Amino acid sequence: MKLLQNFIGGELCAPVSSAYLDVYNPASGQVYAKVPDSDKRDVDAACAAAEKAFPQWAATSVDERSRILSRIADLIEARHEELAQAESLDNGKPLWLARKVDIPRASSNFRFFSHAITQFASAAHEMTDAINYTLRQPLGVVGTISPWNLPLYLFTWKVAPAIAAGNTVIAKPSEVTPMTAYLLSEICREARLPPGVLNIVHGEGPKVGSELTKHPLVKAISFTGSTRVGREIATVAAPMFKKISLEMGGKNPNIIFADCNYGKMLDTTLRSSFANQGQICLCGSRIFVEASIYKQFKADFVTRTKAVKVGPPTDPESKLGAIVSRAHYEKILSHIELAKEEGGIILCGGEAVFPNGYERGWYISPTIIEGLDVDCRTNQEEIFGPVVTIMPFENESQVLTLANSSEYGLSCTLWTENLSRAKRMARNIHAGIVWINTWLLRDLRTPFGGVKNSGVGREGGFEALRFFTEPKNVCIQFENS
Ligand code: NAD
Which single residue of 247, 281, 308, 453 has CA 20 to 30 Å from 434? Predict the structure, then answer.
């Protein structure tokens, strides 16, 4: 059984308590590793190591920081297969998906910020007798907290800009999927990242995450996870005047007009509904379809969904793998029961699946529900699983109201060939990201985040570098000549 360790001050170390938590393989439902059950003492040690490392790291030239980030990207690429296998085993996602998306994106995150930091500039404001320039300085010791759905992808999305900007970091991966963050600690040593620049403390959210949030040395928290936990973090961090970036839940609309490119829409809607077992914050879980094509869409979407294979993550034919944990699996199944109680009709799926040889794993068939109105709990609460609802609409203004009637506002997908309508809708929809005739097409330079209960602040590109730096205005008055 693999025993994971914390990464503090450049050393791999056991938790002070010597206690460990079980790590499960969702495909089989079996424990396969142990992760440190860290507590305040480990967080204190990591903060001390980060504080010690900060002055030298902040003074390290941008070129040198860039070179180190680039080496980390190279090493992730060199260990691509090992990392993909580890991610799939830990999370339950299909191995082909980890190979194609998660691990390449983790190396891209380091590669991107290794370049971005060399292009990051700040403003100067000239007066008749003076000049102001803005110094962008690292914050100091910062904390990052990430979820289980895209473990290494989202972990590195925060860590890379934080260290590129000259901060030192205490990073807390999800206790549900700690494996690839652990492997990254080995990679950081190999890349000669100075000790204490990145510290990884494993363990539970209410222990490690909350200690990190309230630690007086930690100047900022960058969090991705549920809205419930984001709210808790804001409650603790705001009175301490820490900077916070919160990427939280979603209940994203997928709006399909009759004039769309039907074939492309159908292929993409299959992905945007069920990719990663529906466990992507950007999945479109509320599908609104223009009434004139509703019947056809329903028939085609159900047929295509029934053909989707759910199975062990290592099977290349499996389009959907296992749900990440027993608790989450039970939560999704209970939401399906709730949908039935609310009067929803299950058009396909709606039940647990038991693949041959993997009967104790946590699998759920992709589920389409109709007959519910937008205000019911099924359409208001985030399920975060392979479950979508479909609803007909009559016109643009009606669907805008329906789509916006959610406390969330992360992303929206629009399908129409009418550019004027697409532009109008994009302007009026409550979301941080709008995809038109596509889904999850990402350019790392763009602002990433949500509105309403989906988020505070933006990640991505220079937005992330701005978050991880403090602007200081310096004003120099000239002598009259
Ligand atoms: P979660 O909120 O339960 O946990 C996220 C992280 O926070 C974990 O590392 C957890 O240990 C930690 N945590 C838990 N309690 C804490 C506390 N009291 N203080 C500090 N940290 C604490 O979320 P999850 O179940 O891991 O992930 C699923 C959620 O993440 C979904 O709601 C999903 O929408 C969201 N998500 C959002 C985005 C985005 O970009 N907006 C991306 C991915 C996932």
Answer: 308
